[in-house]
Amino acid sequence: SNNNKRSSAIKRVIVSSLTPLLAPTLHHSVTNTLASVAEGAGGLGAAIGSAANGAGQGQDSELSCLNNSAQNGESSSAGEAHTNVNGLSTTNNGNSVSNNDGIPAPAASNNTVSSDANSVKKKKRLSQSEEDVIRLIGQHLHDLGLNQTVDLLMQESGCRLEHPSATKFRNHVVEGEWDKVMKPFEMYTTHLFYLAELTPLKYNTERIHILSGYLMCSHAEDLRAKAEWEGKGTASRTKLLDKLQTYLPPSVMLPPRRLQTLLRQAVELQRERCLYHNTKLDSGLDSVSLLLDHACSRKQFPCYTQQILTEHCNEVWFCKFSNDGTKLATGSKDTTVIVWHVNTSHQLKLMKTLEGHAYGVSYLAWSPDDTYLIACGPDDCSELWLWNVQTGELRTKMSQSHEDSLTSVAWNPDGKRFVTGGQRGQFYQCDLDGNLLDSWEGVRVQCLWCLGDARTVLASDTHQRIRGYNFEDLTDRNIVQEDHPIMSFTVSKNGRLALLNVATQGVHLWDLHDRVLVRKYQGVTQGFYTIHSCFGGHNEDFIASGSEDHKVYIWHRRSELPIAELTGHSRTVNCVSWNPVVPGLLASASDDGTVRIWGPAPFLDVQDAEGLNECCSMDS
User: Fold this and answer.
1) Which in 60, 195, 216, 288 has the greatest CB count within 10 A?
2) Helix, strand and coil percent figures for the chain, each rounded to 5
3) How far apart are CA 294 and CA 528, in angstroms?
4) Contact predicate 287/281, CB 8 Å
5) Out of the domains of life, which is the source (predicted)?
6) How far lies 441's CA from each of 404, 423, 426, 473, 589, in Å?
7) How far is CA 304 from CA 124, 202, 358, 597, in A?
8) Which of 543, 564, 540 is nearest to 280 (CA)?
9) Separation between Cα atoms, residue 329 and residue 364, nearest integer Å
């Protein structure tokens, strides 16, 4: 009995020590010799000799999943070994099964083991992608604390979650054993000394400046505050471990929370490809269902008339939401500007009527803080009105000459200056009192826009181009050149993209940085009327424009074909404006004398509400 115990223990030591080193072709020869171990030392010598003949042939399997037949899911003869799962160790000659305490369990008969082994079908060899998925699942289960489940998964699949050295490395970091942590990174620390020599070459100077600032801290508390470091501990070391893992290959140690990262990327990609996605959702996975593909319904999109404003008594030429989204200004041929208040339920109510614009109002511009509103008239108008919206008082009525044509205006980002001009060659920069600060002669301006640098003014002119003008150093440069007249244009919030309404061509999207035409949008009817389009929706992913065929067209910025055509107006739609704060609110102004407010479909019943989770195709 003692001899049997001793022989079983020797076999377990041999298997646990040599199995990771064996090539698959040697595994059968080693396990077959194990049966002779029980007979004496001669068997032990034979087993060691058999293993030594090819011990170096299986080294490459150390970095991922073990490639021997016991660990890739294959089943071999009844004498083959399995080892080390949650403290359980088994010999596979049918003699014994023991736990960590070495207490043997009742032995099974050789006939029973042989019968079971012969009945097991050969399992499918796992592909690399299948092994990767198993490791990802194992990592996620480990993060959830389901360690026993991980052990069973790794045992049955024959995979290994991470390299043993990676496990030791993780433990060293968490325990703060920095001398042991730095050994794998000695090569990288050597390179850091070379980086110091590269400082004059401006290599990662921002990081060098940050580290230099840390060196100036005289107290530990100052260093922690400056570096936003909570001090040593588990939380801090876990963050450090996440950074260090980026230097290790994934075959050794998986990147932290890799499965969650992949799922989050998949969800974000589906949102980007969704034509009607127009809401800002939590980037976490808890806000979505992973069991269904992401799909927004057209009923959630501002395609339905929610309100018709009929207070104007003539053609409505322009409309514009304020920067904070709480007000809408509309200008009409009836010589009035009406300011509407947007309440919390997104209904509009008349707030103020600003009168006295003898030529009508064809353009409006809110100041950056929404305190002031500038109104311009049509081509034959030489006046400009600057209103205080809160008080309803006219602060400035500006006119440099009766021969001027002030048809467009744009605010400087500082809110203290604005530029204005027209097609008769006037191009002025003025203060809030209408005093002339600078002028640019000979520029026949069709439309204006001030960039965020507070220096550059974009102006479209009668030469079918957009040029950039700098009033500080009096320089100008060509940015956009079209083949047909540019009737109007607007610029995205980041200043990168420009949206042009081009006569007889429609709506064009330009990249102002690269100075290239990005896309031509189809469907809209654009002649020589001045029609104003806009960016809008969540992240400005959408584009809307009026049209001479009485419709409002909406495109996803990446798609040339419209995703919605809104009907309801009876004459040309001159202008559209998307609320910058409420992505589901859109306004359109028309020659029919009305302003329409568009929003999502109302919830008529439970079935309609549930239908919002389905994706609807565009209604023709």
Assistant:
1) 288
2) 30, 25, 45
3) 41
4) yes
5) Eukaryota
6) 12, 12, 6, 15, 33
7) 56, 56, 34, 8
8) 540
9) 8
> What is the maximal distance between C-alpha atoms in the chain?
119
Q: List, for residues 399-442, the tens digit of each pLDDT value.
A: 888 888 899 999 999 999 999 998 887 789 999 999 999 888 87
Specify the DSSP class assigned to residue 74: -
pLDDT digits (tens, 9 = 90+) for 19-78: 444 444 344 444 444 444 334 333 333 333 343 344 334 334 333 443 433 344 443 333
Contact 77, 33 (CB under 8 A): no
Q: Compute φ and ψ for 218, nearest 5 degrees.
A: -95, -15
**Measured on CA atoms in the order 536, 537, 540, 544, is the torsion positive or negative?**
negative
Q: How many residues does the chain have?
A: 620
Q: 592 to each of 320, 332, 369, how far by Cα in Å?
A: 18, 11, 32
pLDDT at 458: 95
> CB atoms < 10 A from the CB of 57, how many?
14
Q: CA 612, CA 298: separation in Å to the nearest integer?
A: 8
**Is the distance from CB of 593 to CB of 338 less than 8 angstroms?**
no
Look up tokens 């065929």; give the residue. Answer: 549
Tokens of 365: 């511009």
Instruction: Name the E strands within 531-582.
Output: 534-536, 542-545, 552-556, 564-566, 573-578
- Amino acid identity, residue 246? T
Element at 385 (helix H, strand E): strand 384-388
DSSP 402-446: TT----EEEE-TTSSEEEEE-TTS-EEEEETT--EEEE-TT--EE
CB 588, CB 331: distance < 8 Å:
no
